[in-house]
Design a protein that fits this description.
Blueprint: E1 3-6, E2 9-12, H1 17-25, H2 30-46, E3 51-52, H3 54-60, E4 63-68, E5 71-73, H4 86-89, E6 95-97, E7 100-111, E8 116-119, E9 124-125, H5 133-145, E10 164-166, H6 175-182, H7 185-196, E11 201-204, H8 210-218, E12 226-228, E13 233-242, H9 261-272, E14 283-287, H10 300-308, E15 313-315, H11 322-330, E16 332-338, E17 353-358, H12 365-372, E18 376-381, E19 383-385, E20 401-403, H13 406-416
Parallel strand pairs: 3-9, 10-11, 10-13, 11-12, 14-15, 14-16, 16-17, 17-18
Antiparallel strand pairs: 1-2, 4-7, 5-6, 7-8, 7-13, 19-20
Helix pairs in contact: 1-2, 2-5
């Protein structure tokens, strides 16, 4: 039995967690939870007997199938003008991707807007929340906040067909996370079908964006198997659970979160095979985030003018179809972009040079992906700036606009790109 303290009170994490959460969140906004309560609840959850982690999932499932063997790689050095910040330097080492399974578990409920997976003994399946305790905790909170208490009930299954795989969750409608965390599940599902002759029903988010549906079509997913989530609770006779193609914070506490290059290549190859390739691979593009809520280039017009002399064209990916984004990056040799989901598209390139622009906030995500796929990666850090019209979001390090230093861009292009 795990016990901990919240505001000086000793609690039993198995029996009293919901009482504390209901009290804490009854009349409070979600951002208060994020800023003041989340860390404590995540700590409780990680040590709770309510959590089913990877090895437990393998042990408790009806059957498991390896869909990707373990592998390792060491990324090339990132290019920059000064010292490399810890977030990136700590990623410049050997990466070990674990053996990846697809498992099936009987008698599971999917509950709430983020589809919390609850087993018949009242436990929560972490892998269904992309392996992140923080995401599972957020999902539990949102479930309770919307009146969907995440508990198992003994009723008839929602689907007559069996089994079911879940492709929805807290981050499933985020472009980056869909392509690196959710869509790779199709690789596991296809191997499950090859082995057992049962292609599962698929649950996807309600009212999905066009690019999400298009990605499933390009992977040749049977249309009759795709089901949008229209209910807040689903009772499944069998849930198919593919492992996310990377380590998680519990399987690699040191932060070994790099995505599997093999799985990303599988996604890219399958999607590019369905798109007519361009004859050129010499495009030079600047990704603009002009219509985004965060990390926009504050002096974008100046940067566009500057880069036009080097043959760069600004592109707004949010106005392009998935097919057009794939075709563009297949033919791109150089890309410059502020940190953002548009850089996910580098997986479609065969040989691309990436220059990522950061403010104070630095993330190694695209360095890990670029280096894992053999691309050349560079970055610069510039000054943050809070735009006067950026009032719809809470200001934090990772969503401020960026005042791009023109001299830094020129220097790094001359030093590493011979421009």
């Amino acid at each position: 039995m795990v016990r901990t303290t919240v505001r000086g009170k000793l609690i039993n994490s198995d029996n009293q967690i919901w009482r504390i959460m209901k009290t804490a969140f009854r009349d409070q906004a979600f951002d208060i939870y994020i800023n003041y309560i989340r860390d404590t609840l995540v700590d409780i959850l990680q040590t709770s007997s309510k959590l089913i982690q990877r090895q437990q999932l393998v042990d408790q499932s009806n059957r498991t199938l390896v869909y990707q063997k373990s592998s390792s790689y060491r990324p090339s050095n990132p290019h920059c003008l000064g010292s490399v910040p810890p977030d990136i330097s700590e990623s410049n080492r050997e990466w070990k991707i674990p053996e990846l399974f697809v498992a099936d578990v009987a008698d599971v409920w999917l509950i709430g807007p983020a589809a919390v997976a609850v087993t018949n003994d009242g436990k929560y399946i972490l892998e269904n929340a992309v392996g992140k305790p923080e995401i599972l905790m957020d999902s539990l909170v949102k479930s309770i906040y919307t009146g969907n208490i995440p508990v198992h009930q003994n009723t008839s299954p929602t689907f007559d067909s069996d089994p079911v795989a879940n492709l929805s969750g807290a981050q499933s409608q985020a472009f980056f996370h869909w392509f690196v965390d959710y869509l790779p599940k199709i690789k596991a599902i296809e191997q499950y079908d090859d082995k057992y002759g049962r292609y599962p029903e698929l649950l996807i988010p309600r009212d999905p964006p066009d690019w999400l549906i298009d990605s499933l079509k390009l992977l040749d997913v049977p249309t009759e198997k795709i089901n949008q989530r229209t209910e807040s609770r689903y009772h499944l006779g069998t849930l198919i659970i593919p492992f996310v193609p990377r380590h998680t914070s519990l399987t690699a506490p040191s932060g070994d979160f790099a995505r599997s290059p093999q799985v990303l290549n599988w996604i890219a190859n399958r999607l590019t095979d369905c798109v007519n390739q361009s004859e050129s691979n010499k495009e030079r593009i600047l990704i603009t985030r002009r219509d985004a809520d965060s990390r926009r280039i504050y002096n974008e017009d100046e940067i566009i003018t500057l880069l036009s002399d080097y043959g760069f064209t600004p592109v707004n990916l949010s106005t392009m179809s998935l097919r057009d984004q794939i075709k563009l990056f297949e033919s791109t040799e150089y890309v410059i972009a502020p940190h953002g989901a548009g850089l996910t598209n580098i997986i479609y390139a065969s040989n691309i040079n990436v220059l990522e622009i950061f403010g104070d906030f630095v993330s190694p995500i695209y360095y890990q992906i670029a280096a894992g796929l053999g691309h050349e990666y560079s970055f610069i850090q510039c000054d943050d700036i809070k735009s006067s019209d950026n009032k719809s979001i809470v200001e934090s390090r990772d969503n401020r606009d960026i005042l791009v230093n023109k001299e830094k861009i020129i220097r790094i292009m001359q030093k590493y790109w011979d421009m």
